[in-house]
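User: tokens in, sequence out, please.
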């Protein structure tokens, strides 16, 4: 990326992507922030999209910490954060071996799997002979695994939300306790990611300048998410956003298939 993007298409992708990430991080656990990098990657290479988003995400984290200060669960953070740091470390040393198309496939599969899991939970009662099963609360090993996966996917494309939510959502925490815990989790791993991102040269002048141009959108998106967290039910929000997440995932999987099998 040699200069600040000036084409309208880039900003048509970047602006809604940042708002979605901010609203998700501010009010709904951050899981839907996975769509931000794929959306921006429609306009720029995926590694550039990831680098652009990291300073913006760090700004969002500051707002989130202020809003949910000391309301998080140390018990769950003690499991997920160390595992995520290991995942980030693995991502740092293997990132150069991942072709952009394979990164798109990984993120696409995560997006589709977790969105379909949501739809199954949301509409499963409509299926014939459906029986609601009691969901067991996952243990520490489950948390270590998904924390590590979250660290890796967060490093390559800021897609740590779905994996960590695979552990956090079944914990059945109070909504605010859950939200505060995810805020602290992503604050910690985003700060850690600044080091390897700088080491591998992801932050050139144009990337940082473009992030600075887009930065005012970050607190605004967080503010909207925090307001929604306290004032409205999240059912419709999740239904719409997971629908978009699913479509985005299928598009990324198609991009992978097109690169290797169609073109």
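Assistant: Sequence out:
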């Amino acid at each position: 990326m040699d200069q600040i993007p000036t084409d309208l298409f880039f900003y048509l992708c970047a602006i809604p992507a940042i708002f979605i990430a901010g609203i998700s991080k501010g009010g709904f656990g951050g899981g839907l922030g996975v769509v931000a990098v794929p959306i921006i990657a429609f306009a720029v290479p995926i590694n550039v999209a990831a680098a652009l988003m990291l300073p913006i995400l760090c700004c969002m984290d500051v707002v989130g910490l202020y809003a949910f200060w000391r309301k998080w669960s140390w018990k769950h953070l003690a499991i997920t954060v160390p595992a995520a740091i290991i995942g980030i470390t693995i991502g740092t040393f293997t990132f150069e071996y991942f072709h952009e198309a394979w990164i798109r496939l990984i993120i696409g599969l995560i997006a589709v799997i977790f969105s379909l899991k949501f739809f199954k939970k949301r509409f499963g009662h409509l299926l014939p002979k459906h029986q609601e099963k009691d969901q067991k609360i996952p243990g520490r090993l489950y948390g270590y695994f998904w924390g590590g996966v979250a660290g890796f996917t967060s490093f390559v494309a800021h897609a740590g939300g779905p994996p960590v939510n695979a552990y956090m959502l079944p914990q059945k925490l109070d909504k605010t306790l859950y939200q505060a815990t995810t805020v602290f989790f992503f604050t910690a791993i985003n700060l850690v990611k600044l080091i390897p991102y700088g080491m591998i040269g992801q932050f050139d002048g144009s990337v940082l300048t473009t992030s600075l141009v887009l930065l005012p959108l970050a607190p605004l998106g967080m503010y909207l998410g925090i307001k929604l967290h306290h004032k409205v039910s999240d059912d419709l929000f999740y239904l719409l956003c997971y629908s978009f997440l699913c479509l985005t995932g299928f598009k990324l999987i198609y991009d992978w298939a097109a690169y290797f099998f169609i073109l």
